[in-house]
Amino acid sequence: AVVTVDEEFVRVVAVPENGIDPKKYVLGLLQHRYLEDALPILEALYGMLDDAEIAYNYGICLSELGRIDESLKPLERCVDLDREYTNAYVGLGVAYTRLGRNEDAERALRQAIRQDPKNAYAKRNLAAVLARSGKGAEALPFFHMKIDSGLWSLWAKACAVDHGVIVIHGKHPGSPQAHCPHIHRSEEHTS
């Protein structure tokens, strides 16, 4: 068993002698989307260990459970522990976006892309942030990249820039236009 005590909590993680490693156990819970079950274990491990992977997963778990404000601290800790943890920058970008902090989101997502230029998820999210910020022309190259996601590809193929504003031609289910006020629909030009 491991016990830690700080100003607010006493944390205990007990594992039978021949039991599974707590980190492997909690990562398995997350892999199967048992977020509510994983959260208290992640919280305990986060308080005990300086582990970038635990900090990242704790932040993402909080974010997925709608606790966006709380997700920032563990995600920031993750990048403090490991500056090369690209997905933590993506997670920060998504969290900042959800909080309406577009400048912070853009900065985090650009860092993720600098570290991993092929990270489609970072590019996709950066494109949405740029579009939402009125930077349609800057966002367009990210929409035209090859992405495996079928809906995103359909949406990207239907985009055009008109005076720096992204215009969607036709009807494309699942397009992020509802989340981007600077994206306008043009029904008369279907692709």
Characterization of the model:
With 191 residues, the protein is mainly alpha-helical. Helices cover 56% and strands 11% of the residues. It contains 9 helices and 5 strands; from the N terminus they run ββαααααααααβββ. It has helices at residues 22-31, 35-48, 52-64, 68-81, 86-98, 102-115, 120-132, 136-143, 150-157, and strands at residues 2-5, 10-13, 159-162, 165-169, 183-186. The strands form 2 sheets. Strands 3-4-5 form a 3-stranded mixed beta sheet. A two-stranded antiparallel ribbon has the order 1-2. Helix 1 (22-31) packs antiparallel against helix 2 (35-48), helix 5 (86-98) runs antiparallel to helix 6 (102-115) and helix 6 packs antiparallel against helix 7 (120-132). The longest helix is centred in the first third of the chain and has 14 residues, at 35-48. The radius of gyration is 20 Å and the shape is elongated. Residues 146-191 have low confidence and may be disordered.
Itemize the secondary structure elements and their pairings.
Layout: E1 2-5, E2 10-13, H1 22-31, H2 35-48, H3 52-64, H4 68-81, H5 86-98, H6 102-115, H7 120-132, H8 136-143, H9 150-157, E3 159-162, E4 165-169, E5 183-186
Parallel strand pairs: 4-5
Antiparallel strand pairs: 1-2, 3-4
Helix pairs in contact: 1-2, 2-3, 3-4, 3-5, 4-5, 5-6, 5-7, 6-7, 7-8
Précis, in short:
The chain is 56% helix and 11% strand.
